[in-house]
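Minutes, structural biology subgroup

Action item carried over from last meeting: produce the structure token record for F-box SKIP23-like protein (DUF295) (Rhynchospora pubera). EB confirmed the sequence was re-checked against the source entry. Recorded below for completeness.
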Amino acid sequence: MRNPDWSTLPTDLVVRISSLLIADDASDFVRLRAVCRPWRSSTVETKSRADCFCPRNWIMLSDPNSSPIDVCFFNTSTHKSFSFDLTPYLDTYSLLRSLDYLFLLKHKITQGFALLNPFMKSITPLPSKIEPNCANVNAPKRLEDLIVYLSGVFVTSSSTIVLRFILDFLVWTKPGDLSWLYDELNLGSYSYSKLLFYKDRLLAVTYDDKRLVQIDLANEIPNQLQVEVVFLINELPPTLRKEWYLDLVDCDGEIILVTFKTFPHRCCESLETYKLDLNEKTYVRSPNLDNHSIFLGIYRTFSISCEDLPQVPTNSIYLCALYWGDSDTECYNLKTKHMTYQYCEPFLNPSSLVEKLIKCCLRSYWNIVSEDDE
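Output recorded by EB:
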């Protein structure tokens, strides 16, 4: 039997396959376009696809045997890996921050900011000026003044770039705009969980009234952020406040809410997980993570598929240095309801995959600063 000529696949079939790939992982979409000229001409150029800008489920791993400019990425769903050499870019740019799978750069001559996507090898220029949209007279005017507080970046399907800062405000812009828009987060509650970027929405759970709230980023963002209440989570304890910890995580498309008591001591018996359904506006307590584990950090949380990954215990939640001034990491097994002590301090040279995943949750690692700026 002769080998089939895959380049002769019908165009509509190639387009359909490519749309499924881009919905799962942009790096596979790039590989598809590299197979042959007909497949490449049948699909859309990556630089014109907004959803290609942020590959999904990729995190940057720490490798003690590599230099800071030789970066390894790991996919928490497929377990694929990808290496990227920053060297060709550092003649022109200084590296300011690493943000999950993107790099914030500063041009050495013009002093302009840019985002580098290592998967697409594309650089998107960013404005430096900020236009405040709130009544705060002390609102920042320049992006440069905020870099040290930067904690996350989101890119929506409409190409809007959103930066989130630990001081509870956002700035957003579109490629080609001359300035950022700025607004402070007002979720109707003094305390709330970390923001989760999920399908063009920012989600959070408030402590005071146990509401799941969202900011819709799918369309053109107005001058002021619009917060909507999705539904109430009545099963949560009546008093959350400071002694409770809440976190939202995207677990391969399912939203998981993790809650547990932290004061006066860590209370394993109080740890619960809930699956949230935005469409049905329902939630259900679920002690099963469907062959996944979750890594929780103060600034960063992610899930990982444990299928064919025996070195990561399944159905477990890692509490990675969650408390100010505390570097302990513990692992809670949802099936056995048992907490095990893991490590006493952040890793300088992590060796195992679990150690590298834990270090990904530590701000001191993933918000790296280039040697030129130290």
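Discussion: The two ends are 62 Å apart (CA to CA).
Next step: EB to file the record with the rest of the batch.
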